[in-house]
Amino acid sequence: MAAGPAPEARSLMDEQTFLDNFNNLKYPRKTYLCYEVELLVGENHIPLDDYKGFVRNEGADEGSERRHAESIFLGDIASWNLDTELRYRVTCFISWSPCADCADELTKFLTKNRHVNLRIFAARIYDYLQGYEAGLRKLKAAGAEVAIMSLQEFEYCWKNFVDHQQDEDESFPPWDNLVVRSEELSQRLEGILQPSVLVFRWPSQVSVTAAHSDIMSQASREKRRDPP
Ligand SMILES: [Zn+2]
Description:
The protein is of the alpha/beta class. It contains seven helices and seven strands. It starts with 12 loop residues before the first strand and ends in a 6-residue tail after the last helix.
């Protein structure tokens, strides 16, 4: 690609903000969303560094109008006017998975913007408001890849979206039980994204939960993802 103008310095998140908000064992009230965009040319993914950064939800503690991070991000994407003749892959690393309304907005965006693929890696599952399961399933049906952040994604975000001041090589400090929690959430998400299955056995010692659990662990074993 021809070299474009030098990108403006993008803002990075400070370390403590990342650690506080992406910790998959905590329940912070804010939502942070880190994003990056790649141009897809054949088999190649070309990073577009002008479209890389983070947003956070607004109004949760300022008393102003509430806007979820996904909604703010979709506003940003619209302002970029990505060329409809080209193909893009947008990856979001989000501290809480989308609520039903945001999943709906993202689904509508994908339906209208067939030139954009979307991947969402969530640190935690946002289950506070009803309808989130159906919302996540709709999002998947619209073509989005929805997954839970593993250690690999936490390390990737730490390297790419966090300000390390003088020490650029500072490695990500994982918290206790990060991996165990990530795997639990991943299994839970797999269960949410699966269509409902009822298994009947004879004699009737049936546990639907157990049946789901079998399916979820199998899905988890089969799960493969591209690195971000
Ligand atoms: Zn939302």
